[in-house]
Structure formats: structure tokens, C-alpha cells
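ok so i was messing around last nite and threw this chain in just to see what happens. nothing serious, just curious
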Amino acid sequence: MHYTVTVKHASAISFVCAIFTAVGVSVLLHAQQREAQIVRLLDSPSVKDKLAGITLAAHLSFDELTILLGEVIQGHSPASTKAQEVLAASAFSEHRTEELSHLQINRDLLDSVVWWNTASNQPLSPKLVLDDSLASPFINLSFLAGFSDIPPTDDLLETPLRDRDGSVLLAVLAIEKCVPKKELQGLVQSWSSDFDFERQKAAVFFASMLNTPFPFAKSSNSELATIQIILAENNYALAWRAIHKSDGTINPDIALAGMLANPDKFFPILIESATNKKWTHPEHPIMIAFRFAPEIANKIPTEFLQNSETRNKWWSLFTCGLLLERR
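result:
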């Protein structure tokens, strides 16, 4: 009897060992196949293949990436840019950013990584006393950027929502930031049938921000109807197709809809359009960046928002911050 129990126990152990061995072999084979696939894609002359290979390799260690991407970063293509970003993110996570200086990393990217590596909490921006005669878009902008205190709620809700370019972006972001959710829900109800077109548009945005399904009547206005579809279906691709105005500039409200639909997918579109100066008012995409990545945007000195040259630096730092956060 004792012999039988011992044999069964030994058989059970052998069975478990066999399973672990099989799993280990399977994992090893899968890793080898994945590595072979990465090498094949990186060796391809196709930029699309190289980008796919870089994406597959992104989880590897900095040492492994340095070997795999050493040649890719030397080119001048989207693949080279992506490879440099992956290397920078890996070096940052492993606290080895000083080693990036020995690689062919773009100087702006390298400077941004160094900045984030040494960044400390920035002092609060000085508050401004705003003249009541200022137009509401400027009051909203100052509040959103942290330059002034929260304006009275009644003032926000009673002043026109329309900005200088016809968008409601700043007003929507300002109202969302300081109006309680319960009151926002009430605005969705009341403004959805308002005669004011801007209020109808704002109601659609608030419903999306609150993640509250609402049976909006299909609008005869093409822009509002497009925003309704983007937000109802989380269709960031439609936002990308509809984002440009007839003059080639960006429609801020369509961009906001795209970000609400899928911020991870739409951030690159937002950043590219901002750095290529496609916005009539360059502060608009910056305010969107503050809304969707405040933990990054709030760490960048507001002094960089002063003019075109310093805004380029702001976007460089913001993009690097997203990269280092693996977003």
C-alpha cells in the first residue's frame, strides 16, 4: 500500500514537472519567434514594417533595444523618430538617460529627456486681476491656464460661448472645470434644445464628458451632426477626416471631439497639427493638452507659452512627457 502511494505521488510530481517543462519550452519558443519577427521587420526596407517591428520591441530592455535599433535610429524617417522615442522611454524608465548622449538621438528629444529627468515642481503662476470688460474667451483662457482665479459660475453660464474663431472649446473646458457635475447634467438637458447653436454644441460635449448617454436629436447643422457621431461612436477616425476647415486650419471643436473619443489615438494628431502651426489660435491645442494630460502640462513652466518659439519648446517637452509616461 505504501509502495502504491509512493508511486502515485512520484507520478504526480513527474506529471507536474512535465507540464512546467512544456510551458517553459513553449514560452521560450514563443520568445524566439517574436524576436525573429522583430528582426525580420526591422530589416525590411518598408517603413511600415520597421514601425511594426519597433512597436513589438518596445517592451525590451534598454540594452536589447540599443542593439536592435542601432541602425534604425541613424536614418531620417518616421521609423527613425519612433526608434529614438522608444529608446528614450526605455532609458528613462531604467534611469540610464545619460547613456542616450552616446547614441544618435535628436537633440531636441535629448534635451527634453534631460529636462524631465531633472524637473522639479514649478512655482505657482502669479494670479492676474482681470478687467470685467475683457471678452469671455480671454477670461476663460486665463482661468484655464492658471493665471487667474475661478470666475463666478453665473458669469460663465450667461456670457456667450462663442470664441473669436467661432469655436466653443474654451468655454466648454472652463465650464467643465468649475461647474459641479450635477449642474452640468442639468445643462445637458436644458441646452440640448436651446435656440443658441453654441449651447447645443456644448450640451453634446458635456454629455460625453460626463459619460452620460443622451438622446440628442440629429442636427441639421453638419458640424454639430459630425460631433454627435464622433462622440456617440467614439469615432476618432471621423474626427481626423473632418478636422480641417476649408482654409486648412484646424477646427477646435472637432479636435476636442476627437480627443474625447480616443485621446491615446488622437494625441499624435493634436500635437502634429499644433507643431505645424495649423491652429488659428495656438493656445487652443495647449488648453486641450492641459485637459487631457494635466499631470504633464502642469509641470512645464508657463513662461514657455509666451511666443511662437517658446511654444515650440513647450510642445517638445509635452510630447516627451507623454512618451516617458508611456502614453
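not much to say yet. The radius of gyration is 26 Å.
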